[in-house]
From TrEMBL:
Endpoints of the signal sequence: none
The protein's name in its UniProt record: D-alanine--D-alanine ligase
Pathway: Cell wall biogenesis; peptidoglycan biosynthesis
Gene: ddlB
Disulfide bond found in the keyword field: no
Taxonomic placement: Bacteria, Pseudomonadati, Pseudomonadota, Alphaproteobacteria, Caulobacterales
Cofactor binding, note field: Binds 2 magnesium or manganese ions per subunit.
Swiss-Prot/TrEMBL catalytic activity: 2 D-alanine + ATP = D-alanyl-D-alanine + ADP + phosphate + H(+)
Primary location class: cytoplasm
Length: 313
């Protein structure tokens, strides 16, 4: 990037079309304010399907800071639009974004790279609503959503399956991912860097204040307690860092990613659940919290993401 940082015009994409719209609006606004505090010209864009026309009407920004979450904004679609327009953008490219959003395919790539992932697989949602397709306890979730949207936990001894996924209003695809429930700690590791040189920041241990680590626990103030660095056996802590870096490389990520793990401290079993290519940037989000722990302020992280932006094609 040849222009000085303060001379840049940055379009911050937020909102979007997915079930994670509200989180995206918060992430985008926080990032926009962080850039403005550093003297950068910012255009806030609530991204819709007319995105190409909107960006063209802005007198082509120098960089797009992509704060969209979920389908369309995080799955390679918007990335393809930006590459067509030849505008440098933050986070992962088309292929890595599409791969990470598809939980089933990403698990296959991670497993081939030596990263331990859960068992289970894809099932027709009506079958999952009608019977237990695997023995409880297990987790049911959409194959292509994030932020724990549409996730259900079926506990051990449960008599009924997840009827909700068979209802007419279910909007997350005809197939759902069903995985064995892994007891223990919920862990997260943010990674910064290109695929050829990623750096894991630290490990966070996440405890929801009530119930399951769902959408509310992730984003509501007080919904969860974050302990960082996580109190873990040194070998497990190190393994989480290295596995997150390996996942970043295997998926072809760039910019910032976040890997989510479960660690069964009884069985000493560390399993990577999924890789997020555009982690949240809200006041309760894990990636900026980990960056701050390592000495990188919120403003520093946002600046790094903007300066790291590129347009591969």
């Amino acid at each position: 990037m040849t222009r000085a940082f303060k001379d840049l015009h940055v379009a911050v994409l937020m909102g979007g079309l997915s079930a994670e719209r509200e989180v995206s609006l918060t992430s985008g606004e926080q990032c926009a304010q962080a850039l403005e505090r550093q003297g950068v010209r910012v255009s806030r864009v609530d991204a819709g399907r007319d995105l190409a026309n909107v960006l063209s009407g802005l007198i082509k920004p120098d960089v797009v800071l992509n704060c969209l979450h979920g389908a369309w904004g995080e799955d390679g679609c918007v990335q393809g639009v930006l590459e067509t327009l030849r505008i440098p953008y933050t986070h992962s490219g088309v292929l890595a974004s599409a791969l990470a959003m598809d939980k089933n395919r990403s698990k296959a790539v991670l497993k081939a790279a030596g990263v331990k992932v859960p068992g289970g697989g894809l099932y027709d949602r009506h079958e999952v609503a009608a019977r237990h397709v695997i023995e409880p306890p297990y987790v049911v979730k959409p194959n292509a959503e994030g932020s724990s949207v549409g996730v259900y936990l079926v506990t051990e001894g449960a008599n009924r399956p997840v009827a909700e996924v068979g209802e007419p209003g279910w909007g997350y695809g005809e197939q759902v991912m069903v995985e064995p429930y892994i007891a223990g700690k919920e862990l997260a590791v943010a990674v910064i860097g290109y695929a050829d040189g990623p750096r894991a920041l630290t490990v966070t241990d996440i405890t929801p204040t009530k119930g399951f680590y769902d959408y509310e626990a992730k984003y509501a103030p007080g919904g969860s307690v974050h302990v960082l660095p996580a109190v873990l056996p040194p070998a497990v802590f190190e393994a989480a860092l290295r596995q997150a870096e390996a996942a970043h490389v295997a998926m072809g990520c760039r910019g910032v990613s976040r890997s989510d793990f479960r660690y069964d401290d009884v069985k000493d079993d560390l399993v990577l659940l999924e890789v997020n290519t555009q982690p949240g940037m809200t006041p309760t989000s894990l990636a900026p919290e980990q960056a701050a722990h390592t000495g990188m302020s919120y403003e520093d992280l946002v600046r790094w993401m903007v300066e790291d932006a590129s347009c591969p094609r």
